[in-house]
Amino acid sequence: MMWIRFFEAWLTARLLASPTFHRGVQLLHKKLREVRHGKDPSEMGGINIDKPEATGVKKFLDYYIEELREQFRGGNKKR
Question: Cα(31)–Cα(27) distance, rounded to whole angstroms?
């Protein structure tokens, strides 16, 4: 039974010495921190630090609705 304890200690030492294990723990910690506290402002970068714009589906829907309104008005939107 003593060999099981030595084997466990050896495996634990190998795991804690592994860079892959530490990267995994670091990524997990980063994701949990983002869930709890929101995205880190330093990672947003550029001009989106103060107020990030809408992304994904909301941004597409806003643009689509705006285009439909412009078509119904009959005006050309200058960009």
Answer: 6
Q: In this structure, what token pair is assigned to residue 30?
A: 């980063």
Residue type present at position 26? Q
Whether the CB-CB separation of 67 and 74 falls below 8 Å is answered with no
What 3-state class would DSSP assign to 79? coil
- How far is it, in rounded angstroms, from Cα 28 to Cα 53? 26
* First-to-final CA distance of the chain: 76
pTM to 2 decimal places: 0.46
pLDDT digits (tens, 9 = 90+) for 35-51: 888 877 677 666 655 55
Spatial CB neighbours of 15, under 8 Å, sequence gap ≥ 6: 21
Local structure of residue 52 (DSSP, 8 states): P
Tell the burial category of 66 from Cβ atoms under 10 Å away from its Cβ (0-12, 13-18, 19+). Answer: exposed
